Amino acid sequence: MTRVIRLLSTVTFSLFALASQAQTPATMLPIRQISAGMHLIKAEVAASDPTRQRGLMFREVLPPNGGMLFVFDEKMRQCMWMRNTLIPLSVAFVADDGTILNIEDMEPRTEDSHCSKAPVRFALEMSKGWFSAKGIKTGAKLGGLPTLRTP
Question: What pLDDT, on the 0 to 100 scale, is given for residue 149?
Fold first, then answer.
């Protein structure tokens, strides 16, 4: 009887652990592999209003080549801010063909606006300084972006 109780306790604990992992924001979004030159990025894709609004809020760390790709419904001047975002980030605003138009560094827990220099449908957030550390600048091209529908 004791073995059965111990086994049930272990199974129950394991199920709770798996359920809590499944509920983390990182696992709820699809992951897309994006290339930036020879560098591969594993980006969570935020393509709906709720996921774009939450973004990377409340996260304490990002994986070394992890980030978040924001896919917007309309091509327009996009702006980002850092309310409730705990880690410093850099954001690249990206044209439909994958060309980086501008890169902005952002400080945590601020509401300063960081905007694209022209209308875009993509923004890629990475740990602050990631782009400069990899030698990726304005004009570089990203590969592996989602194909966009044209209205």
Answer: 74
